[in-house]
């Protein structure tokens, strides 16, 4: 059986170079902004700030999977501003509490770049919390608001079944469950469910009663084949590019067969079942949204690939090793996306972003 790459230890590209996440996360920021009103509505109508602040002088907010900015700073400021507005409306005669914001990501995340980019004018104390959000990160009942955007679709690890040669779950020649047999899809689904259960179990310990959690992640309408989505088209083309490179001797076939993207897009039905089975949070809002309503013309394939590379390049570097090979992988992907641009642009994107607002019971 092929060796598993430790995907759980691979953050986004750090620094501020051409393929850094800091310079290539504009799309993610726009996607978060699409549901900004949903998050603010939850704070205004579901967050009892008088109750939450009755036993503390500090409101604690956490952003899980913060990466290196700048999106996390925008989100944290928007949430803080909204809580302040709610506090002034609900408690007009009381002093506004202080705020602490905890920026969480994997230990290997480029926290240096993150904190060098912190806004100079901010009304919160900032701290970094390294660790996987699939486990405990904070003391019990210490958080009042948790934000987790464009990160929960990352699995803690690849399902091991994908590497069992000759089995129904062996994902030979593919890099994802897109266009794969049902057994492969099932292995991904089970891994996501286990990860999500761990995530909720940890947050149930950390979030105070009445505290809120806003999740924004990759989603899909129930029953829709992933190959119909823009990302699904891209994953299939990525697999083809790798197979071509194997045929040309640039990489080996074994390297292709043992490489799988640790990404899963959940439907609202799947997410609802997991949350309700856990029972620690009530679902205040859940739906699918269009992450790119601003996109009305052709897709810039180079720009899109740069954003993908900024988020995923460490996976490729860890698996294939040679930087020249990694460069060629993404160069080939761009060319294939351009060749199949009509297919990409006609693929379904209306409701492929899942947002969930949860309240700790």
Automatic annotation (TrEMBL):
<dbReference type="GO" id="GO:0008168">
    <property type="term" value="F:methyltransferase activity"/>
</dbReference>
<protein>
    <recommendedName>
        <fullName>S-adenosylmethionine-dependent methyltransferase</fullName>
    </recommendedName>
</protein>
<dbReference type="InterPro" id="IPR029063">
    <property type="entry name" value="SAM-dependent_MTases_sf"/>
</dbReference>
<dbReference type="GO" id="GO:0032259">
    <property type="term" value="P:methylation"/>
</dbReference>
<dbReference type="GO" id="GO:0046872">
    <property type="term" value="F:metal ion binding"/>
</dbReference>
<dbReference type="InterPro" id="IPR005299">
    <property type="entry name" value="MeTrfase_7"/>
</dbReference>
<dbReference type="Pfam" id="PF03492">
    <property type="entry name" value="Methyltransf_7"/>
</dbReference>
<keyword id="KW-0489">Methyltransferase</keyword>
<keyword id="KW-0808">Transferase</keyword>
<dbReference type="InterPro" id="IPR042086">
    <property type="entry name" value="MeTrfase_capping"/>
</dbReference>
<keyword id="KW-0460">Magnesium</keyword>
<keyword id="KW-0479">Metal-binding</keyword>
């Amino acid at each position: 059986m092929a060796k598993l790459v430790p995907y759980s230890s691979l953050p986004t590209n750090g620094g501020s170079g051409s393929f850094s996440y800091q310079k290539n996360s504009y799309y993610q920021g726009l996607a978060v902004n699409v549901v900004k009103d949903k998050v603010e509505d939850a704070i205004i109508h579901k967050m009892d700030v008088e109750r939450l602040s009755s036993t503390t002088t500090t409101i604690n907010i956490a952003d899980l999977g913060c990466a290196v900015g700048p999106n996390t700073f925008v989100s944290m400021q928007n949430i803080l501003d909204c809580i302040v507005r709610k506090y002034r409306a609900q408690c007009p005669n009381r002093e506004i509490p202080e705020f602490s914001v905890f920026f969480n990501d994997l230990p290997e995340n480029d926290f240096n770049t993150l904190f060098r980019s912190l806004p100079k004018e901010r009304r919160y104390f900032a701290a970094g919390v390294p660790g996987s959000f699939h486990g405990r990160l904070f003391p019990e009942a210490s958080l009042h608001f948790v934000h987790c955007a464009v990160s929960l679709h990352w699995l803690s690890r690849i399902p091991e079944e994908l590497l069992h040669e000759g089995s129904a779950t062996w994902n030979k020649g593919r890099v994802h469950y897109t266009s794969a047999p049902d057994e492969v899809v099932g292995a991904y689904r089970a891994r996501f469910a286990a990860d999500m259960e761990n995530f909720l179990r940890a947050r149930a310990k950390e979030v105070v009663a009445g505290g809120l959690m806003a999740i924004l992640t990759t989603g899909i309408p129930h029953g829709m084949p992933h190959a119909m989505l823009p990302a699904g088209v891209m994953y299939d083309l990525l697999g083809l590019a790798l197979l071509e490179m194997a045929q040309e001797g640039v990489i080996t076939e074994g390297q292709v067969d043992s490489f799988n993207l640790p990404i899963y897009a959940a439907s609202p039905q799947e997410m609802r079942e997991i949350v309700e089975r856990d029972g620690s949070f009530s679902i205040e809002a859940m739906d699918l949204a269009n992450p790119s309503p601003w996109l009305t013309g052709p897709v810039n394939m180079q720009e899109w690939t740069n954003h993908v590379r900024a988020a995923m390049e460490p996976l490729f570097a860890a698996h294939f090793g040679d930087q020249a090979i990694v460069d060629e992988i993404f160069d080939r992907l761009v060319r294939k996306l351009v060749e199949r641009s009509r297919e990409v642009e006609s693929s379904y994107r209306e409701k492929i972003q899942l947002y969930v607002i949860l309240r700790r019971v």
